[in-house]
Amino acid sequence: MTDEFSDFEVVPFDPASMATSSLGLAKAVWYKRPWFLITAVVVVVAAISIVSDLPHRITKTEDAASQNATLKEINADIKPCAFAVSESFNFYNKYVAGKLTASELTQIPPLLVGDQTACSFASQPVYDLTNNIQPRETAAGKHIDRVISVVQRWITNNALASIEDIQYLFKHPDSSSKIGDLASQELKLNKDRQLALREVKAAEADIGIALVSLKLPVLAHLSGT
Questions:
Q1: Which residues contact 133 (CB under 8 A, 6 or more apart)?
Q2: Cα end-to-end distance, the chain, whole Å
Q3: Under a CB-based contact definition with an 8 Å cutoff, are residues 160 and 116 in contact?
Q4: Among 9, 35, 94, 176, which one is most buried in terms of CB atoms within 10 A?
Q5: d(Cα 213, Cα 210) in Å, to the nearest integer?
Q6: For residues 161 and 18, what is the distance between their CA atoms, to the nearest angstrom?
Q7: Position 15 pLDDT exceeds 80
């Protein structure tokens, strides 16, 4: 019995010589595992997003450039109505002074309708002023935001009401109530213009840099008001 296995060669155990099976695969180093790599990518992306969203202190030059860009947009949106109300005032003054020909009197009513539209919410510039302009949120930007509110009132309240009064007075020149309202609107237009200009000056004071001029026009005084 002692010699039963004597014919078999005794081979020393060598793991390296063993066949490799799926169960014998070495486990991946922990930092190379898929779950770690995916988690790391997510963390990095989230960190970048948070850092990019953090507020950062801007320079006065950057602030001035941003507010100037906003003021240029405001001026572009003011332009159609500023022309319209100036034209309407000019028509009215000539009408009161008796300087309009019969031909001009027939041409003016449709022009006044166009002026009315230019200062209403049907106008694309007025829509843009109301919905599409957002000043940068700085101390100066708060003043420019108030400029937008005042300019919007100047256009859609005072200028529009003035043009409508003038339209009525071309048909009913002796209406004392409309003449009185037109005089009131004229005062409000001037008052709001001064208020808007003061807000621009306040923004300039906050930044310490001169800004783009606000192009609200000085309107001619209305005859008979």
A1: 70, 73, 74, 77, 148
A2: 137
A3: yes
A4: 94
A5: 9
A6: 97
A7: no
